[in-house]
Amino acid sequence: MSTTPVPEPSDLDLKKKHRGMWASGDYPTMVERFLLPLGPRLVRAAGIGAGDRVLDVAAGTGNASLPAAAAGAAVTASDLTPELLDAGRRRAEAENLDLEWVEADAEHLPFGQGSYDVVMSSIGVMFAPHHQPSADEMVRVCRPGGRIALLSWTPEGMVGALFRTMKPFAPAPPPGAQPAPLWGSADHLAELFGGRVQFHSADHGVLEVTAFPRPGDFAAHFIASYGPTISTRAHARSQGRLDEFDSALDDLMTTWNRGTADAARFEMEYLLSVGTRS
């Protein structure tokens, strides 16, 4: 029987940095401002209903966990960052929903083999630095015949472009780390899950964002609230490249604006994949 992997000391240091990055800024505000539609879309696609045992990996504030619980599932929301789980608990209390909140690393999940009927992640597990261990863990804790459901930003979409824009300003990635938007590629998912998960749907969708009047307002929101942008911008400042970074981010938002200069509209592409565990 497979058991929960034990992280190496160097890995613990890396995860401490990631935990701090996601705790910086105000990610819960980003969720409330424009990310809320994603969780229910994943829950519907996964066919989650009453009686399902569901694990949400890298659940953040529970954007998919809460609608799964509202559908009658027994939900465990797991995340590396306790501050995000605390925000999720407050949301659950406000909505009178009962679910379990567990601090956990996506690459070393503290759950038994085959414990869940559905293992899902909405723009969460994709940000674990090492993709293969995360995929392996999702498979391990899902029962045979259970479902794996993923919603991930695509490499070709706006968030993929954001990470390409930030890359020249960021410190070197840790050994073995892969770009997060690769999870939004069907070919990459096939490599990660091999023959262990048979994906029967892989649909591209778009999150339309109209919450920011001007492109620069969206850039400012990322600078103030989004951990990866905050971390990369701090590194750019330390290298004397702050103005260059800010200009590159403004240019990105202008390029991806599908509205007007005073009524901005953005389309953020994602891949929604659902498969059956062999």
Topology:
Elements: H1 9-23, H2 27-35, H3 38-46, E1 53-56, H4 65-70, E2 74-79, H5 82-94, E3 100-103, E4 116-122, H6 131-141, E5 142-153, H7 158-166, H8 186-193, E6 197-209, H9 215-225, H10 227-238, H11 242-256, E7 266-277
Structure notes:
The radius of gyration is 18 Å and the shape is globular. It has a seven-stranded mixed beta sheet with strand order 3-2-1-4-5-7-6, sandwiched between helices. It has a single domain (9-208, 266-277), classed as 3-Layer(aba) Sandwich (Rossmann fold). Helix content is 42%, strand content 21%. It has 278 residues and is an alpha/beta fold. Pfam families: Methyltransf_25.
Could you write a compact summary of the structure shown?
Its EC number is 2.1.1.-. The chain has 278 residues and is α/β, with parallel strands linked by helices.
DSSP helical segment count: 11
CATH superfamily: Vaccinia Virus protein VP39
Oligomerization state: single chain
Strand order of the largest sheet: 3-2-1-4-5-7-6
Strand content: 15-25%
Features:
single chain; 278 residues; alpha/beta; Rossmann fold; 42% helix; transferase; methyltransferase activity; methyltransferase
